[in-house]
Design goal:
The structure is a single chain. The protein is globular and about 115 Å long. The strands form 5 sheets. A 5-stranded antiparallel β-sheet has the order 4-5-6-7-8. By secondary structure, the protein is an alpha+beta fold. The two termini are 64 Å apart. It is 43% helix and 15% strand. It is built from 21 helices and 14 strands. 25% of the residues are buried. α11 packs antiparallel against α13.
Length: 626
């Protein structure tokens, strides 16, 4: 990449500064995410770490715990239960297939489809697609918003070769394998265009990016990667501009643990002291951390004085800034799709944008109300065991009255000359529990409201449901319950997964190279010819859990057609010879492994003869009587 002019770097830095300034104005959405995370973790901020008492809860804070009731306040797990149940359903829909993204094509292109499917499956293994997509789905259910970066990247792999001079000593060769890297983004440090609906940010948004903190080794690896691709500049200046402990644009996560404190991922290692550098040499970039801002934006090249064609047409650029003042990369992204490489998803979409509540946010008031009723019942039991009383401190010591021992022996200092009884020195105030008897029943009713709100009933959460039902009645009931859960799955399919599948496919067509991969179905090596795939680019469709192979290829209709052919004599005469090929096609779509092993040898030999003598086979087909 040619070195950018000082004017271009100045304009790029000014644009990134304006984006970060606008990003800091939207504090309300981050406060919403913090409230959701605290409720999801059932964290109580004002709890005493020693006694477990919650400050400011009236009776609970004033009551001395006794015996079996020596427990802190309880938060019922309503939010986490509903979120994880929905995440489990979505993961079963989208992430349970093998391979993760199957390829559907016509029977004539089955070999090329198998090669593309094996290549995508190899990329899924290299990039850990299921893990990143699982965290993405959890973010989408919790916050009703999630972000994922799709970047064409590379990873180093090492192959062992036989050494010619020393055959007994294997040689190691380093190669780079390119693939589409999927990375779930932390929404606390993600930047995006707020003027566009969440589901349309990648398609219509002006910018999207993220902020991260890197140590010196991590930044050096990133810059080395840019340097190998010849897309880097200002490397010495970036390495010297480290920050000590603070990153002004990075947002820390909320505190949700009683034991581990929330912190910024800053590295406290002093590399200068470790390497033995003097005070004068410490400014050479061996200490501290680096705040890296990666931004994808639609910009006209003329606006930032970037050389190239179409100066007045908005184009997608990738910009990488270190510590807010050093430009290390400005790259035009030339792709077959006009999308920002950061995809967003919003499962609960009703046209109200960011005001739409997620499942977790809708369950927060239900959890708070149920928790209040539960604690009312617990506090009532505590007061019934150790309630308020009046006592004479000159006769009974305070530590003896408030002793947490359930079978304590209390000494009483009475005057033998006085005509008093022990009951004269201690008088308990009767506790009236009226109004708290049905607290537990009321709490369970509120919990049932939460299930109605999210549509996650007991069977959907793996719990037993009372009632006698036949198998068909049970399937009908669960079908009605499943219909509501498929609404967010349908939204994610066309907001996120449909563009993602096209990006994965077109990245291979545009940037991919010929390679040899191992098919997970057959266990054999498959040679992938990118040029051959490009010629059939529109012949392949990428499936997933929501739109599986069977739905795209219409296997149900194909099976019904085979049944009709076998039952009708006229149809059997006309289409009967096609039944074996139709059956093999269905078996391939259903993902049966080692399918060629089941093909009879006679048919295999006939196929080889046809492949060797295509002209003769064409003559036979055209002259064969109907």
């Amino acid at each position: 990449m040619p070195q950018l002019s000082a004017k271009t770097q100045e304009l790029v830095l000014r644009f990134c500064t304006d984006v970060l300034t606008e990003h800091k104005k939207h504090e309300d959405y981050y406060l919403k995410m913090e409230a959701i995370d605290i409720a999801f973790a059932r964290y109580i901020a004002s709890r005493d770490p020693k006694t477990g008492e919650v400050q400011g809860e009236g009776i609970d804070a004033a009551t001395v715990h006794t015996g079996v009731f020596n427990v802190p306040s309880t938060v019922p797990p309503i939010v986490v239960s509903q979120v994880e149940s929905m995440v489990g359903y979505l993961s079963e829909v989208f992430l349970s297939g093998s391979p993760l993204f199957p390829i559907v094509s016509n029977p004539a292109n089955s070999q090329a489809a198998s090669a593309l499917e094996a290549l995508l499956d190899n990329h899924s293994t290299l990039g850990g697609y299921p893990r990143e997509l699982l965290i993405f789905l959890r973010d989408a259910v919790k916050y009703n918003l999630a972000a994922l970066e799709t970047d064409w990247s590379s990873v180093d792999q090492y192959d062992t070769l036989d050494e010619l001079i020393m055959p007994d000593v294997p040689a190691v060769r380093e190669t780079k394998v390119h693939f589409t890297k999927l990375r779930r983004l932390d929404l606390y440090n993600t930047v995006w265009d707020r003027n566009v609906a969440p589901g349309n940010i990648a398609r219509d948004g002006d910018y999207a990016g993220y902020i991260e903190i890197l140590s010196k080794p991590k930044l050096k690896r990133l810059l080395n990667k840019f340097s190998q691709e010849q897309e880097v500049q200002n490397v010495p200046q970036a390495m010297k501009s480290y920050i000590s402990q603070d990153a002004p644009n990075y947002r820390i996560h909320p505190q949700i643990s009683d034991y581990v404190s929330a912190r910024k991922p800053v590295d406290g290692i002093d590399w200068a002291a470790f390497l033995g550098f003097s005070e004068e040499e410490k400014a050479t970039g061996f200490a501290g951390n680096y705040e890296v801002f990666t931004l994808y934006a639609r910009l006209c090249p003329d606006d930032i004085k970037f050389p190239g064609p179409k100066q007045n047409h908005p184009q997608v650029f990738k910009i990488v800034i270190v510590n807010g003042n050093i430009v290390v990369q400005v790259k035009r992204i030339i792709s077959a799709y006009d999308y920002l490489p950061i995809l967003f998803g919003q499962p609960q979409e009703d046209g109200l944008g960011y005001q739409t509540k997620s499942i977790a946010e809708g369950g927060i008031p239900i959890q708070q109300a149920a928790g209040t009723l539960f604690n009312i019942r617990f506090n009532s039991a505590r007061r019934a065991v150790a309630d308020r009383a009046l006592y004479n401190p000159s006769v009974i010591a305070m530590k003896d009255v408030n002793s947490p021992v359930p079978a304590a022996k209390i000494p009483v200092k009475t005057n033998s000359l006085g005509n008093t009884r022990i009951s004269d020195h201690y008088h308990s105030i009767p506790y009236d529990s009226r109004g708290t008897e049905t607290a537990m029943q009321d709490a369970m009713a509120i919990v049932a409201f939460g299930k109605e709100l999210s549509g996650l009933n007991n069977p959907m959460q793996g719990q037993f449901q009372k009632g006698n039902k036949s198998v068909q009645e049970w399937n009908d009931t669960m079908g009605g319950a499943d219909a509501r859960l498929r609404l967010p799955a349908l939204a994610l399919e066309y907001q996120f997964f449909a563009p993602l599948k096209e990006i994965l496919k077109f990245n291979i067509y545009q940037y991919g190279k010929d390679s040899v991969v191992t098919s997970q179905k057959t266990g054999k090596e498959v040679a992938v010819q990118i040029a051959a795939l490009r010629q059939q680019i529109l012949s392949f469709r990428v499936a997933d859990g929501y739109t599986p192979k069977s739905k795209l290829a219409g296997t149900d209709a194909l099976i019904q057609s085979m049944t009709m052919i076998s039952q009708n004599q006229l149809l059997a005469q006309q289409f009967g010879p096609l039944l074996p090929q139709m059956m093999l096609h269905i078996m391939q779509l259903l993902g049966i492994r080692d399918l060629p092993e089941y093909i009879p040898q006679q048919q295999e030999s006939q196929r080889q003869e046809v492949a060797e003598n295509p002209q003769e086979s064409n003559w036979i087909e055209t002259n064969e009587p109907a």
